[in-house]
Myb-like domain-containing protein (Prunus armeniaca), 249 residues
Amino acid sequence: MDAKDILGLPKTAHPLSQEKKSRPPKESQRKPDGISREVYALIGGVPPLMPAVETSQLKKRPPTDEKITWQWLPFTSTARKDNLQLYHWVRVVNGVPPTGDYSFAKYNKSVDVVKYTDDEYEKYLTDPIWTKEETDQLFDMCQRFDLRFIVIADRFPSSRTVEELKDRYYSVSRAILMARAASPADVSGHPIVKEPYKVAQERERKRALSMVLSQTKHQERKDAEVLAEAKRIAEARMVARETVVARGS
């Protein structure tokens, strides 16, 4: 007695052989060059995310007529004013070390700060709230710290804000440029002359930025709702205006 006798099912003989369903021929994928068979089997034939390097490039050797060595050699940089001599490893080809300036010296950028004389200061630069000593200190620090006014304000001897330091520097530079020019048209395209620094505008910009950064999430949602409502009203008015124009025509 088997399960079919218990369930009362008829006994039917199964065919010994069943026709196998025809399957589409499997496309054979060729293993890319530069990938081992084991790695290709693990990724399941999926192309790698990173491009494979051709083995021919890995086996490529430098020309036989070049003898490359690395030597510990001294160097100087034009970016330094003290002619300090340091050492680094240098790639030397056929015993000839590279010549020229230090490769990173080109990234040493400096700001051209305007210089003035005592006569020019007396004629064009006198200010009731600034002394000559303070102005000299300001320009020396601008040259030293490359116009980083945050650093200058932190180290300035007297109590001056960043806006006051900027205003004094740019006003003096602008006055000197205009005084030395043969005509105002010669320096009209200079950025300092064309776009003078405005203290009130800078303070208002910082105040508005501080208000935006200090907003809460609730205030941001309220502002977004107000802007969305204003946009909806503007679009409704535009549609109404277009409707009136269409009726009139």
Summary: Residues 68-107 form one domain.
